[in-house]
TrEMBL record:
Catalysed reactions listed for this entry: 7,8-dihydroneopterin = 7,8-dihydromonapterin; 7,8-dihydroneopterin = 6-hydroxymethyl-7,8-dihydropterin + glycolaldehyde
Protein name: Dihydroneopterin aldolase
GO molecular function: dihydroneopterin aldolase activity; isomerase activity
NCBIfam families from the UniProt entry: folB_dom (TIGR00526)
Top-rank taxon, per record: Bacteria
Length: 117
């Protein structure tokens, strides 16, 4: 299996359980490892034969910008499911982090791995 990756994609979304977090979007960082065969694209040199990371990034910005999640865990599950079901990934690793949420801590977050059923 090959891996397509996107590192440190910044997305604005409503994330959190506190009233301010439900009202004011926060910037989160998402890093992805997307397992998929890239052999066809390597042979054809055609973007239609692979998962287009630009389309993934655009879709995530649109989808997450329109939703609220209480927990990073739920947001990560949403992203994993989207990649598996809508983009045909065989396996994904999703890392999601809030920035500057705690004094003296640069990032807090969660990393999940999921595979296609």
């Amino acid at each position: 299996m090959d891996i397509i990756f996107i590192d440190d994609l910044r997305v604005d979304t409503l994330i959190g359980i506190y009233p301010r977090e439900k009202a004011v979007p926060q910037t989160i960082e998402i890093s992805l490892r997307i397992g998929a065969s890239t052999a066809s694209a390597g042979a054809s040199d055609d973007i239609r034969d692979t998962i287009d990371y630009a389309v993934v990034a655009e879709r995530l910005r649109a989808e997450l910008g329109a939703r609220h999640f209480n927990l990073l865990e739920k947001l990560a599950e949403y992203v994993a499911t989207l990649l598996l079901e809508d983009f045909g990934a065989q396996w994904v690793q999703v890392s999601v982090a809030k920035l500057g949420m705690m004094r003296g801590v640069r990032r807090v977050g969660v990393v999940i791995e999921r595979g296609a059923a």
